[in-house]
Amino acid sequence: EEKKMKYNDFPYKRISVDSQKELMAGWLNRFEKTESADEQISVLKEVDEANREYSSYQAIASLNFNRNIKDKAAKAEKDYYDKIGPEIQEIHNKLDQAVDASDFKDELKKEWGDTFLKMIEMDLKTFDPKIMDMLRKETELRNEYTQLVGGAQIEFDGKTYNLAGLGPFHTDQDRDLRKRSYHARFQWFAENADQFDELYDKLVKLRHKIAVTLGYENFIELGYLRMSRSDYGAKEVANFRKQIVDHVVPIVTKLRQQKKEILGLDHLYFYDGINFKDGDPKPKGTPDELVAGAQKMYHELSPETGEFFDIMVNEELMDLVNRDGKMVGGFCTAFPKYNRPYIFSNFNGTDHDITVLTHEAGHAFQCYSSRKQPLTSYLWPTMESAEIHSMSMEFFTWPWMETFFKEETERFKYKHIAGSLSFLPYGACVDHFQHWVYENPEAPPIERKEKWLEFEALYLPDRDYDDIEFPKSGGIWQGQLHIYQMPFYYIDYTLAETCAFQFWIKSEENREKAWADYYRLCQAGGSLPFTGLVDLAGLKLPFDDGCLESVVKQVSKWLDEVDVSSL
């Protein structure tokens, strides 16, 4: 049974590359020389144990740095694991090749299913020693983008802000302040426009070259393989985007009409990104009270979530409140050696505090539920599946939102639904744009911007930038880090949201059955690819005709019953 330890008592150490090389030499030797499937299986089990250990220490190193970026010792540990990452990958690449060439694949499949074999196959297709230098270059360019965006110094009303610091002004109740803050933001992007264009141009051409070197026609297929999509391709995604245009765009237009009514405006500009005249709903209570409320909520939701959340609280596996020296953002990580997840966030008194508690708890609950999966690679699924757990948990906890929002609960729910739905067309727009970019790697930067505006007109027809030049010229996508950093990772959110909406509909109809389906999905971890997990959860595949149409019909019905004037 699992030992009860608090996070601060988790053993930690540096694992050396030499020790891994030595171990791997032994494993490889046994794996390739053996005449028996059983021996190969036992080698892979040993490797998996070692993986659990390595990824736990690496996660601890990274988390401790995030918890205090001023801590020099913590930074040294994180840097150490960052540095050895590529070498460790190379060591494992050899074993992957041996597994891929094994004579006992049928027996391995019997032991673990074929998902891990498919993952290995895909990984091998994305790597070759001859692209090592290009991969290093790609990482350099990615870091250049991070530095450019992270180093923004923007003068606004007599003070200097970075992009995150300027953020709160974009959603201020004062319309003039919102507009001026966006002016300042896009002025900065305009001043750095050439650098953004050049950087992206280099990245696109480099990725194209990597793909061609590996034998692909262009980067698209390689991009899908990098995202570990074994079970669908660009064709399915295109069909999904088409459904968004047909069914979601019209209802988002309707939502914008409602928004005018809520805000009392006769026209909406891009900078009118607020939800209610007097600001968003705010959680009522101190951070400790919110966590106590969540603990009670998770006990009432199900026995499984009750047990899980008690562990998170009692073993101090959450760091939730914003403080000096702490990294921004929210995420969930895990320590497979200790069978424990961890939730990190920065409470700041907004409704986002509660969404983080439900969203990241969804990831953490899934990870905890799949801890008995036999392979480390099965603890988490691929991205578009992982987001189903988190987004659905946001909906499963709806009946308890009164605990946190009291008299503002209806406003919170409306914001949640309207926001989730309005995101779908934007997500599809980003995806469509990237497909075009990598189909036309030689297109000059100006053409990319024209193309973006074309897609924007299709997916976001009501957008009006007023007289703000930079976005009017088609450059707004340059602030979307995924486009630079992780090509084709964005449609994932929209696919998951479509599944989460289905869980919301199911839980409104039959809570027990919906929860049973969800729990089964969580326990499966990453033992199946996306389409297999959707099927296991009893959901409709987002790519299939009719899926989005039926989701939108239900959401639309819910929205019709909302008395907008009361919000």
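(the above was protein one; protein two follows)
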Amino acid sequence: MTQAQVAVEGAVVPVTAVNTVIVGAGAAGMSCAVQLVRFWRARGVKDPHEKLLVVTAGLPLGASRMSGSDKQTYYKMGTSPRVPDTAEDFARTLTAFGCCHGDTALVEGIGSLRGFYNLVEAGVPFPHDPTGAFIGYKTDHDPYERATSAGPKTSRFMSECLQAEAERLGVRILDKHFLVRFFTEQARDGRRIFAMACLDLAAKDKGEIPAHLLVAENWVLAAGGPGEIYQASVYPRGQVGIHGPAFEAGLEACNLTESQFGLASIQFRWNVSGTYMQVVPRIFSTDAEGNDERDFLTEYFDDMPSMATNIFLKGYQWPFDAQRITERRSSLVDVAVHQETVVRGRRVWMDFLRNPAGPTGWAAFAIDALGEEARQYLRRTGALQATPIERLRHMNPPAIEIYRENGIDLTRQPLEIALCAQHMNGGFAVNKWWESNVKGTFVIGEMAGTHGVKRPGGSALNAGQVGAQRAAEYIANARPDYVPKLSSLRSRLREVAEELLEDLRATLARGRKAKTPPEAAMREIRQRMTRFGAHLRSREGAVAALAEAGRQYRAICEEGLKIASPARLRDAVAARQQCLTHLAILKAICVLLERGA
């Protein structure tokens, strides 16, 4: 690592040079850092930790640290001593429903156990039996017993354990640095990223533009999904991703139309999958003030056994699936919740103190009356208690505790829920080494467009670990390991610094005259995406939304967003990036619908 400064028109911009910059400090980014240092050490590279820098806008933030859903379950190659499995079978499962390439799926199968045992050695407390076998269980879209879990905080454990390992290896983490843009240049092997510009969010002088430039040979993008573009979202608050700068840098996207949606709590953002649904709580709605309770699901199902069984099935059929709407199946619950909240403007709740209720003439809830799959599961697990909260306490005490830690006591109060955006299954196109079309730039984790649709729950965590390992291995063995010499780049760095400051100063100048604050722009983006770019889409609606998004993006670029000081630059830049991101997604949706999807 080398450092310097560039003086530009009275301002001083610090510059840091390393061999590889990893953007994002979640489970995928930290895994890549750990493995890259190990690969370099194996090759005899001197002081490998000095050649690497992890950059993040907030170390304790992000989906790996703060969200539920896929982050509770880890989907891997089978490790049960009873159920045989192969990498080829694993790949067949990932590709079964489309939008997942066969080569990356096979690589994810082959590298799965390598990634999983790396996490075990790092200290992630995956449960095993006395013989040491990590016996799995079935998750959604899973034909085998491949899933495992360290509880509701699985991905948090992964991130924390991998960070601790990275720090033991001497990896440096540059925290509170918000990515503004990439600077590209034409090289012999095509377009490449030369530098990355950040805003130092921890800068002490709030009156100056706190710019920071980073120069590297290799870039690993691991900053997660663009969760803030949705109004109904289970992503952690502030999860904006870096899709906008990646688009501007020329990275090719793929499968942008594919995202995953499901029921989640909204006060504390957490998916209500797994045992939350399998204990069969009562689901009801109220008006905006919390009055006028109504058991609205009775409009959609014929009797108590059908309604209660489908509530149970939402546990491992959690993602919204259009094919599970017909014949009164489990995704009809999602449609009903959407109708109640978005269309009727009511609030929906899960009540673990009471069993489902029905109208006059319906039989009372009874476990013995459930469908065979639900009935046998609850019997096998011994979850035959009288109320949902008792069944939840028996099956999964940490599921209650995670809410108590966040100010919600499921033993005393109902839980407000909605149908939320949860994970982007598309992203940026990569090859079998997770390298993008821009040479030397790798995309891993949720940003990589490798996940496919109707994928097994938890497979994203496996994909992130395998992608991290593949990118690290390729960088260590097939990319140059030197650190760029800043002394020979002074002229180019001055050009970049001038361009960066000119852009940020113009953003600030427009902001002092603009009328629309960043918060209002983001509200418009979120409402548009939740209405037209979420789980329900129409060609007419998407086309209109795309036109509106285009107008908004042009207005932001030309007129700016209302900010008064450099301290608000981050908000204005983030809103502009998010607007470009949702514009790209809506364009992809329109093209797909025009092709007859």
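Reviewer note on protein two: The mean pLDDT is 94.
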